[in-house]
Amino acid sequence: MRINATDREILALAVPAFLALVSEPLFLLADASIIGHLGTTELAALGVAGAVITTAIGLCIFLAYGTTASVARRLGAGDLRGALTQGIDGIWLAVLIGTVVTAVGVAAATDLVGLFGADRGITEDAASYLRVAFVGTVPLLVVLAATGVLRGLQDTRTPLIAAAAGNLLNIAFNLALVRGIGPVPALGLVGSAWGTVLAQTLMAVGLTVVVVRGARRHQATLRPDLAGVAAAGRAAVPLLIRTLTLRASLLVTTYAVVQAGDDTSLAAHNLAFAIWSFLAFVLDSLAIAAQALTGRALGAGDLDSTRRLTRRMVWWGVWSGVVTGIGLALLSPVAGHLFSSDTAVVDQLAPVLLVAALVQPIAGVVFVLDGVLIGAGDGTYLAWAGGLVFLLYAPFALLATGLVAVWAAFCVAFMGGRCVTLVWRARGDAWTRLGAT
């Protein structure tokens, strides 16, 4: 395989993005490792609270995606000052949304964890953790927005450094605050929440300093521009709807498994989805590169370059999917033994992984074209397409009988439906709007 200049540019963005994405789950893994030594109740409470906070933050991923696209367009148009101004507006939008989410989250923490129906001890501990965790919403959303700014500026290395440093700080703060060191009292589960908030705050400060320095160097204003913040908010709405349709589809999948199987099926499904999610990091890193490069090329008014980049990134998506698919197929007979000693779970997991392996090349196309259209600012189409795919997929999932059948529906109807809608759009010209905006 011959690597050309375009390939090197794609990899220069995708590889650091992949490493940064992989580091994100380490926050909760580190917390779980430390909290696990306190007791089962505390670990269960962390699981419940973690599900709430990751869902809330996951819905706000548009702060990174939308900012990447808008900043990259300005950069491509040669307006670096405008790009940084747009990025600053995105960060102010993150502060605004984060403030609202914090207020609602802290007030509703008990009600949110109560939805899981856990026993009283777990619910109380989870609510205590969640009230503190929501305090970190503003810095965490600022991290998303600042990461989007830097990606739009074609820099994925700085967010990687911030993610690595944040993980190390999170471990150090958790060890100190959970167990207590010297004059620092042992705060238990709540100490873990405070440790994570402190780490996230320092990450936000570090990334914001980098963006602010660039803004000052190019005379971009640091004050919130109400029109700019409002424009960023309007652009974010379609991406939020797109994310909601994806989350709804995943929830329907889990619901279908619960209805069609038993506890063993659910356990195997959870393992399969965890493996699927890890492989998705590989493909999502290509999507991030696609966002940044597509936005820049369209901003420069270079349609030929945009088309060439799209073809090359799709090529990378397909072959990345082939590689991950082959790897998953080869591991399918033994992967279950790494996660479970229950032979029934292992037996159910193997065929599911084979089904997932077959669809990996399609998933590669889906992730890349999703990134291309996000980079092009085509959020409205993605929102409508996401809703359509959900409506078409849900009946197939709910009518499926058995775990393998549900996953077959997920791979064929959901991933296949997304692939069809994205390829159809990418082959047309409606998304190739040229210029800085």
Number of alpha- plus pi-helical segments: 16
Rounded to an integer in angstroms, the radius of gyration calculated over CA atoms is 22 Å
Which structural class do you get from the secondary structure elements?
mainly alpha
Q: How helix-rich are the residues, as a percent range?
A: over 70%
* Strand residue content: under 5%
Task: Indicate the mean pLDDT.
Answer: 88
Task: List strands and helices in order, with pairings.
Layout: H1 5-23, H2 25-35, H3 40-58, H4 62-76, H5 80-114, H6 120-133, H7 137-152, H8 157-179, H9 189-217, H10 226-260, H11 263-299, H12 303-339, H13 343-358, H14 360-375, H15 379-399, H16 403-427
Helix pairs in contact: 1-8, 1-11, 2-3, 2-8, 3-6, 4-5, 4-7, 4-10, 4-11, 5-6, 5-7, 5-9, 5-10, 6-9, 7-9, 8-9, 10-11, 10-15, 10-16, 11-12, 11-13, 11-14, 12-13, 12-14, 13-16, 14-16, 15-16
